[in-house]
Structure formats: C-alpha cells, structure tokens
Design a protein that fits this description.
Distance between the termini: 48 Å
Structural class: mainly alpha
Helix content: 55-70%
Order of helices and strands: HHHHH
Largest sheet: none
Number of strands: 0
Radius of gyration: 21 Å
Shape: elongated
Strand content: under 5%
C-alpha cells in the first residue's frame, strides 16, 4: 500500500522514476494525474472502494425515500406553501463546489507533499465554511419566522439540509482523522482516494437537493 512518506531513492526495475529523481512512482501513480480510480491500485485494496460504494448506495436509498416523501406530500397537500430559499444557499453551493475541486487537487498531488497538504487543508476549511453557512441559512429562515413545523415545505427543507449536513460533517471528521495520520506519516493513497470519492458524492448530492428544492417547491 503506498504511503505519504517520500519514496525510496532506489529504483525498481521496469518502473519509471518519479519527477525530480525521487525514486520510482508507486503502483497506481504511473499516469501524470495520479489516477488511482481506474485500475491503478492493488486488487486487494479494491475492497475499500467497494465498501465505500456500498455505503454510498445506502445513502442514495435514504435520500430517494426523502425525495419520494417530498413529492407525494406536496402532491396531496392543500396547505403547501412555496418556501423562499435563503440567499446564503447560493454561496454555500459555490463553497462546496470549490471544496470538491481542492479535494481533487489534493488527491492528484498525493506524492507532492507540500501541494497535497495545502489542497487538503483548503478542503477542510471549505467544508467547515459550508457547514457554518448552513447554520446561517437556518438562522435567516428563523429570522423570517420559518421553523420546522411552520409548513410542510419548511419541514422538508430542514430535514433535507440537516441530513446532508450530518453526512458532510461525517466526511469532515474523516478528513481530520486522515490529517492526523498524515502528520504521523501513515496516510495512504487508498485512504485519500476513498475519502475523496465520498466527498465528491456529498457535493453531487447537495447539487441534487438544491435542484429539488428550487424546481419542486
């Protein structure tokens, strides 16, 4: 399993040298982009990606159920009121999209320690800003007198955004734990790849929820 520690200066037969003469490129990083999502990792390590995909499938099922309940409740309701979304949500969406970009930059610069560290920390900071922005959005609704039980539309808004926030907070905790492993010299390429997969999924899920709340309101 490749680690964040600098590779040995001693080359391996049949493997190209890493940039700067720092030794052979570890398995899975042969391409210029460090792409470990498309067959570049050890088959024994694929179970981590498989486990993550199974977990993401469970999250998809949960939010599919939320979506069905949202559509059905709106369709049969005679008390549904259109909810004006807080303006902060637009900024929050941009922040989360940017965090997905920095995460991908970190993943692709895994073997360039300083670049990886900078992009990784930027992702953590942007994730924290997004969660703080969600609290601001809820406060904006409260200031307008819109609470969880004000209307079915507001109930679903709080439910969907809070559920996403909890899952994203879990991803943020994972990033912090991996940061600790980084400073211990025990961070692996597979751990970064699996975590980035989860983070990108949370990004896509948020975009889907925004479209649902905008179009389906």
């Amino acid at each position: 399993m490749a680690t964040i520690a600098p590779p040995s200066p001693v080359g391996e037969p049949g493997r190209p040298p890493a940039p700067g003469g720092r030794g052979p490129i570890p398995p899975g990083l042969d391409g210029p982009e460090g792409d470990d999502w498309h067959g570049g990792i050890d088959p024994a390590e694929r179970r981590y990606y498989t486990g993550m995909w199974v977990g993401l499938a469970g999250i998809v099922m949960v939010f599919t159920a939320f979506t069905s309940a949202y559509v059905v409740r709106k369709g049969i309701s005679d008390d549904w009121q259109t909810l004006s979304l807080p303006p902060t949500l637009g900024v929050n969406t941009l922040v989360l999209l940017l965090s997905s970009l920095t995460m991908e930059k970190a993943r692709r610069s895994f073997q360039r320690l300083r670049q990886f560290q900078a992009w990784w920390i930027a992702t953590i900071m942007l994730g924290g800003v997004f969660l703080a922005g969600q609290l601001v959005a809820w406060q904006q609704l409260v200031a307008r007198g819109v609470y969880v039980d004000t209307n079915p539309s507001s109930s679903f808004f709080y439910l969907l955004t809070a559920s996403h926030g909890v899952h994203l907070a879990g991803g943020l905790v994972a990033l912090l734990c991996l940061t600790w492993r980084f400073f211990q010299g025990r961070l692996t390429q597979v751990a970064v790849g699996v975590t980035s997969l989860y983070w990108h999924f949370m990004d896509g899920l948020w975009v889907y929820l925004m479209l649902l709340l905008l179009i389906g309101r």
